[in-house]
Design brief:
Layout: E1 2-5, H1 11-21, E2 26-29, H2 34-38, E3 46-50, E4 56-61, H3 69-79, H4 94-97, E5 109-118, H5 122-125, H6 130-134, E6 140-148, E7 153-161, H7 165-173, E8 182-183, E9 188-191, E10 195-200, E11 203-209, H8 216-230, E12 255-257, H9 259-264, E13 282-290, E14 293-301, H10 305-321, E15 325-328, E16 336-339, E17 345-351, E18 354-361, H11 364-376
Parallel strand pairs: 1-2
Antiparallel strand pairs: 3-4, 5-6, 6-7, 7-11, 8-9, 9-10, 10-11, 12-13, 13-14, 14-18, 15-16, 16-17, 17-18
């Protein structure tokens, strides 16, 4: 990490700032703006990602939290010895090939240019939302706007290549809920008044209409069916989902997550990654009818039992520090329950590398039983 400071005060200003901020990275001075001009910087801060060959592969203007799971995942990909990170000149265009050409769907034609964003280029398309996709191994997205003059309709189609079925289902699953309108296209899709989300194989597809009208949903389905027919590969849901007990589970609520950023889209946990989620962890969640309330159950698989143990102990410690009524439960060493001010229960336990828990249960005993059933399904 290298920082270039364009402050005209030079070392007299930058030095104290670095010391006060306790920055340990290298800080270079550019008081006359020569380097700033060479990089075409028009606003600060501006961050560049530069590969081993000295080529710029990513650029972001404005503040960006580079400590998020998505940012860490992206950087980790770029640092891998096998050079697995995707760059524009090495991607095979698989996502773009799934987009319908003008006339392939009767009455519809492409309006404007088909765009493709590969690797770090997603920041240019989803400013503020790209990090979440990187936690699910994003490779590329192809996007195009379509119009149907006869019907007066317009839609935007995004095809995301998520490297594998696990990532495709994962990013798709964040939109799953029990009251959604599921439709049979691809492996599964969710249809609303003006959007359709679908996953098939390693692809996640989103079709959006600019304004809902009488023919909007039919158009969304037409695009989804056309793209799904082009995807030959099959895709299985993450195997960890099979370890969620069927009893009392609310159908359609199952989700898959990696990292705390994805988990926070399901259940927000304040603090600095309390459950110690990273690229090596996988988690699933689902809603359950427990007691008198609809609760959320979760199961996380860690690379090692030690990491799972640290997560269990850290979460228990955090709840105690926040004033929670934390008590031991008979689900193994360190297993605990905590009661919230709303008289709802949290129960968490560890078995080997698997951390199982329930949030917002309406009763302690049924919550313990639910967690126990999850633990019985893991090795």
């Amino acid at each position: 990490l290298v920082a270039v400071f364009s402050d005209r005060g030079g070392a007299e200003v930058v030095g104290p700032f670095m010391e006060k901020s306790k920055y340990s990275f290298t800080g270079l001075l550019d008081p006359d703006g020569r380097v700033t001009g060479m990089y075409g910087i028009r606003g600060t801060p501006t961050a560049y990602l530069i590969d081993r060959e000295g080529m710029i592969i990513g650029r972001k203007v404005g503040y960006r939290d580079w400590a998020t799971d998505g940012a860490r995942s992206l950087i980790a990909q770029l640092l891998e010895e096998e050079e697995e990170a995707v760059v524009a000149d090495s991607y095979d265009g698989a996502a773009e090939k799934l987009l319908p050409a003008s006339g392939e769907i009767e009455g519809w034609r492409i309006r404007g240019e088909v765009m493709e964003y590969v690797g770090t280029g997603l920041f240019d398309y989803l400013d503020g939302g790209a990090e979440l996709y990187y936690t699910y191994d994003f490779r590329a997205v192809a996007t195009a706007e379509y119009e149907n003059p006869a019907q007066g309709l317009s839609v935007v189609v995004d095809v995301y290549d998520m490297a594998g079925p696990e990532g495709a289902f994962g990013i798709y699953s964040l939109g799953r809920r029990s009251d959604a309108q599921f439709v049979e296209v691809g492996h599964e899709a969710i249809l609303t008044e003006f959007t359709l989300d679908m996953w098939k194989g390693r692809f996640f597809v989103r079709v959006q209409a600019f304004k809902p009208s009488e023919g909007t949903q039919q158009a969304l389905m037409a695009f989804a069916r056309h793209i799904a027919a082009k995807v030959a590969e099959k895709g299985e849901t993450p195997s960890l989902l099979k370890r969620l007990p069927a009893e009392s589970r609310v159908s359609g609520s199952e989700r898959f997550f990696r990292g705390s950023l994805a988990l926070n889209n399901i259940r927000y946990l304040p603090g600095e990654n309390i459950l110690r989620l990273d690229r090596g962890t996988k988690g699933v969640s689902a809603e359950y009818l427990i007691g008198s309330e609809r609760a959320t159950a979760f199961l996380i698989e860690y690379p090692s039992e030690a990491q799972g143990r640290r997560a269990l102990e850290g979460y228990s410690r955090y709840l105690r520090e926040e004033g929670g009524q934390v008590e031991a439960v008979e689900l193994g060493d360190g297993a605990f329950s905590a009661k919230s001010g709303k008289a709802l229960w949290t129960v968490v336990a560890l078995k080997g590398r698997f951390l199982a828990g329930v949030w917002d249960a309406g009763g302690l005993e049924p919550a313990v039983r639910t967690v126990g059933r999850m633990l019985a399904l893991v090795p």
